[in-house]
Known about the structure:
This protein is an alpha/beta fold. The chain has helices at about 5, 15-30, 40-50, 65-75, 90-95, 100, 110-130; strands at about 10-15, 35, 55-60, 80-85, 105. It has a single domain (about 5-130), classed as 3-Layer(aba) Sandwich (Rossmann fold), CATH 3.40.50. The longest helix is centred in the C-terminal third of the chain and has 20 residues, at about 110-130. The relative contact order is 0.16.
Amino acid sequence: MSTEAKxxxxxxxxxxxxxxxxLSLIVQGRGHFTRTAYNAEQAIEIVPEFRPDVVIxxxxxxxxxxxxxxxxxxxxxxxCIVLLISGHPDTSRRLRPGQLSKLPVLAKPFPPSxxxxxxxxxxxxxxxxxxxxxxxxxL
Length: 139
């Protein structure tokens, strides 16, 4: 199978530039295409052109936070999968009722293998469902 067939477009959003850039390098190392944004407002500008398959977003962002950004994505790009990352223990309280079950959250710090496993599972599901003519499931 070609690299392009299994590659995902991944948008990484974190106001800590070192984290965003590090995650981008890790994800690119697995053959995925990435873009980075350092706040949700930048990400909102990138999304229409980049059309990410997956968005990895920090919860605590200046201005529009990660949860609000996820809701914005869900309204406009329902096929885009969002993975929230957070170093704050109160993340679950920021999610609206019903969101917690729909939005996976990785607690910082996390090993890169957890992030890569999430992306690999999503890519495999996407390929399988495309083969069946269906849309990918939200993990």
